[in-house]
Design a protein that fits this description.
The protein is α+β, with helices and mostly antiparallel strands and about 80 residues long. It has a single domain (about 1-75), classed as GMP Synthetase, Chain A, domain 3. About 35% of the residues lie in helices and about 25% in strands. Strand 1 (about 20-25) and strand 2 form a beta hairpin. The longest helix is centred in the C-terminal third of the chain and has 13 residues, at about 50-60. The radius of gyration is 12 Å and the shape is globular. The two termini are about 15 Å apart.
Length: about 80
Amino acid sequence: MEALIQTIVKPLVDHPDQIMVVQKEEPSKVIYHLTVHPADVGKVIGKNGRIAKAIRTVVYAASADSKKRIYLNLM
């Protein structure tokens, strides 16, 4: 899942080497924390959060067979 998130975000940013995805697993959910360069935060969020919402939609769809709830936080 981390590779999928990086694959989606890498073409959007100017500093692809500073993309970091950290997974935190809890009993009922898995949380992915996405961190990018401060100059790229707006590009990942998009106008009115449209790009962030699209990324979350793809990640949730890819994990549909998982029994745990998936969350993606942008930092």
